[in-house]
Request: fold
Amino acid sequence: MTGQDDGFLVGGDIPVLLRRSSRARRMTLRVTRAEGQVVLTLPTKASLTEGRAFVESRVDWLRRIRATMPVPSVIRHGAVLPVEGFDVTVTPAAVRSARIEGDRLLVPSGRPVGVVVAAYLKHLAHARLVPACDHHAARLGQSFRAISLRDTRSRWGSCTHDGRLMFSWRLAMAPRAVLDYVAAHEVAHLAHMDHSAAFWATTAHLVPDYQRHRGWLRQNGHDLLAWRFHGQDG
Reply:
């Protein structure tokens, strides 16, 4: 069981989110890759004083990590964001729904631009992921029960033991080959629910150059997660 307490500041300007967990055996400190939020997890019996001292001892490390985090980018009119690996400019227009024309992503004037763009990306991700998963599953002689999309922060996709696939809809911003790799990765889990040598061999069978696409996500994934879509009206 995990609970959340009030946070605190360290170093005078670094907010720390405090969580307590009955399953934690030691104090852990991490920085979320999407928001750059510092999270301290404490075992139930650990004191706040101990936790604060633990974080204070790592202030220099926190500053280095936070300095490498991408600056959040807000979706607004005129913003340039990637869609399937290509930069497009969000442009208000007399259209009923969002669509790409050339290097512009046209969005309906007068509607909340962040919500519209997020909905467009979700639709695009679904349109790309369903046939990709169907294709890879057929090659393996496997089947899956459902595909769902979420705005996940810790993973680009997942596969449950009962064959349910989940993906981040932000994959619509990545090159199509990268999205296809993630689809293949999760479909490979239908055959191997681990990251064993057999799993990676299956992934390589589906996408021979998967390591290149995996590397792209490692290098550029933080930039995709840095975009903010909601609460903006352009």
In short: The longest helix spans residues 113-140.
